[in-house]
């Protein structure tokens, strides 16, 4: 069972965060809120997300699982105004979700949860370096890098300390170095990993809206981005596997 | 630098007529006539000057379907011969649209009676995407003598004005209607919720793309292929090598080489590479061929029930002396995938096999997809 009212902007944040990586997901609904964990088809990017009941204007639910076509939901949200409240209600059989706003009332067929990939197991990570930076700085660096290349290296030099982002293309390259003034070093350790901008660009659009991102980094290891959505009542973790160039 | 391999006769160099196309003038022996009585197998609409375009039913006494030509084992000169006898109407489409729709709707050629304003003239046009057409004349009158024979699935989707063209095209394809038929229907403006006729050249690529997008979604739900497989075929001087690389997601890349002195090659080899990972950005520089090859590949994966990343390498020699249309690539890739696969132990062996089949290593190091496969780690590496 699920019956809830949510602010359109908050709901859009939720859907955007998921749709950056996957087109469909399995949503776990419980008394305390909703949660999902999904990995993209290539097994390269992962999202885990929790949204507390407090993020909703009204919320009542019992434990259940629903399969959501995120791409379809995103299209529907195009119709909703900025601050319209959205009513969500699951039908008795759990097959359809009704989404109502203003005078519109959509009835959306849910996906059979059996057809969606199982929740992925989080990988074992060894990410000793932790920094915090504003979403805007990170997103701008990603955008700048994608002009010259299709990959970007994140590095942490513990001696200075400094956080460096380097993108090298065939002919051009770009380097951004952030010191103590621009960025908060939570745990200093040596780290360097290379990532595909293809995924980062999509993540960046979501990350860019957040005030503070925690970046966890290792050596040739996945990167983990942690940030909150919905005025801190939702938490998102993005994980991205690295590239390792053998040349 | 003249980039004929990317333009393929569209006229991007600014010359009034493509110098390469000029070679094909004066090849026919058809007598000027001002009347035609016989079958009309399909419809043709030009793209120049859109939306004020010319076209109508195509008049031809032989089969118009490329799969038939291949089944009959026709050579290139025979196909050019058939096509040079083909007559296209050069009157505004709206004058004959209804008649053309009847022709497009029918699964077998309909008999028509046509009169031309002036005797038809020879105007063989090649354009890389569409099969060549030899004769043209302004139709002053057309009447359809037959009744259209329509498959149930075609009847259903052409009568439905709610369903979008994209959905209708993929639904028809799943019902076993071939892309050549679907292209005809789309050209005649018989699909979709906002019906309009579509120039043949655009409809061919549009159908390839619409059907592929739907197939891609299905393929990505499938289990990965078990082994690396290499397939190969040769059709009219087009050597196609398909490298299937097991993966839970789909990615596609096409590498095309026009050899020295081949049709678009010029004085040196021209290699064009294009690919897609998660989604296709911009129109492919390989043009319609890219979409046709991708369709053949996805069709194969959906049929075998396995997902893979795919590299298609097309090597074109001078034997391909006239551009026959993108159907050549679609059929060559289909033929390659029908050939017995060569299993390879690892990526290196796969690359070596592809090079051996091509007899050249021009493509190695150019594949972004293979580079990506080597360097991108997945979460499976971090358990």
UniProtKB/TrEMBL annotation, chain A:
Protein name as it appears in the record: DNA polymerase sliding clamp
* Keyword tRNA-binding among UniProt keywords: no
Give the matching SUPFAM superfamilies.
DNA clamp (SSF55979)
Looking up NCBIfam families in the UniProt record yields: PRK01115.1-5
User: What sections of the protein cross the membrane?
Assistant: none
Keywords per UniProt: DNA replication, DNA-binding
Subunit and interaction comment: Homotrimer. The subunits circularize to form a toroid; DNA passes through its center. Replication factor C (RFC) is required to load the toroid on the DNA.
Gene3D superfamilies given in the database record: 3.70.10.10
Is the rRNA processing keyword given for this protein?
no
- Residue ranges occupied by any Proliferating cell nuclear antigen PCNA N-terminal domain in the UniProt entry: 7-103
Q: Name one GO biological process term.
A: regulation of DNA replication
Q: What does this protein do?
A: Sliding clamp subunit that acts as a moving platform for DNA processing. Responsible for tethering the catalytic subunit of DNA polymerase and other proteins to DNA during high-speed replication.
Species: Methanocalculus taiwanensis
The Swiss-Prot or TrEMBL record describes its family as follows:
Belongs to the PCNA family.
Q: Which domain of life is it from?
A: Archaea
| GO MF annotation terms | DNA binding; DNA polymerase processivity factor activity
